[in-house]
Specification:
The protein is an alpha/beta fold and 434 residues long. The protein has helices at 2-17, 49-52, 60-67, 80-94, 105-108, 117-132, 148-152, 161-176, 189-200, 204-225, 242-253, 270-276, 292-303, 330-346, 392-401, 425-428, and strands at residues 42-46, 98-102, 136-142, 182-186, 231-232, 235-236, 260-264, 309-314, 318-319, 351-357, 370-371, 375-376, 388-389. The strands form 3 sheets. Strands 5-4-3-2-1-10-8-7-6 form a 9-stranded parallel beta sheet. A two-stranded antiparallel ribbon has the order 9-11. α4 (80-94) packs parallel to α6, α9 packs across α10 (204-225) and α13 packs parallel to α14. Bound molecules: beta-D-glucopyranose.
Length: 434
Amino acid sequence: MRTRFRCLVAAGLVAAATLLFVPGAARTAPERPTSVLGDDFLWGVAASGFQSEGQSPDSNWTRYIEANPGWDRLGDSVDFRDRFRSDIALAKDLGVKVFRIGVEWARLEPQPGVWDQAAFDYYDQVVDAIMAAGMRPMLTLDHWVYPGWEADRGGWSNPDMVGDWLTNMRKVVDHFATRNPIWVTINEPVAYIVHEVTLSGTDADEMLHRVAQAHNTIYDYIHQVQPNALVTSNVGYVAGAESQVNGPLMDLIGQKLDFIGIDYYFGYEPPNLAATSPTPTGMWDLPVHPEGIYFALQHYSQRFPGKPLWIVENGIPTQNGTPRPDGYTRSQHLQDTIYWLQRAKSDGMNVIGYNYWSLTDNYEWSSYTPRFGLYTVNASTDPTLTRTPTDAVATYRAIITNDGVPPNYLPSHQPADCNLIDPPASCTTPVTAP
Ligand code: BGC
């Protein structure tokens, strides 16, 4: 988390350097009601394998935790591995249509060239349970974790990494294609690169080209095996610096994306950050701009005209489930976010889906303190790992039932006059709310 947190703050500083724009005429809130999203909209929840499953086998990440005694121990995380049926029931009860999980390479291929049938059986049970509950599985092939033996070979520094990665991923695709999953090849490649550079000394440019090659090759393979598949690699939107941070990746993989998967969490607002929290202590201090999701969608609708856009991850962190310093509740944030999705759709952006990150709290890449779950779980202190609903559970259920927030919804948080989510457009042509 420390790495990731530093990365986000650094991105914000890049944004600050671009604060040169003059606010222009705002796009005012529409006079007619903002339409709802439609009953074909793909509501979902998202998680990764490593962060939720527990009983994690040897991997780059179990080793990073071992090497950093100051981080929280992973333990059994929130034990999705044994509790997947009840968690899937919670998702079904929300009414979501899509359930995103990761299929962990380290579990499937514990030794080079040796695949564990029991691991495939486990993921079969999870995928079958998702489908039996009436949801579609969204499967992530690589959510930043690879086997320990691959770490011994140098991870992404190893020229053979792409070949090893593809050998396993082809098996995964062959195994699950008949269930018609939606595929995420590599989760947030740039954040993955930042972690690997920081934690294992990988060369950034080399890794960028290798992950792009891995994505492009498996994209073609998935389409051979599952011709109508929907495949993406989701970008982690970086407010203020999206083109600089994710642009080079998109230049390499943009032709092989069936939809643009966008993860949106944080905005950037230098004066507020300086005034209220000069030294942010954690993710819960980072500024949240729900209207930023509108600009993130606009950014990609302009870069890829007509391509479907899907918010693959979105949510808001608290510190151990306590009220946030800005007073924003999970429920308010969710409603405001969906309001801006509706505005984006009303303005012609082709947004087709939204996944909440995440169904339950989980391991936030070094720490259990930042909490993103619709259901809180005190992984470090509660041996029963009870799932306790936050205020956003009832909210999400109502949103899904009604295909969005009501057309006359009034957002809790007003958008900034000039924000740096996607400069210059987000400052020169801002949005207003009723
Ligand atoms: C990652 C998740 C992470 C979430 C919240 C995303 O960047 O894909 O693994 O937990 O953000 O920080």
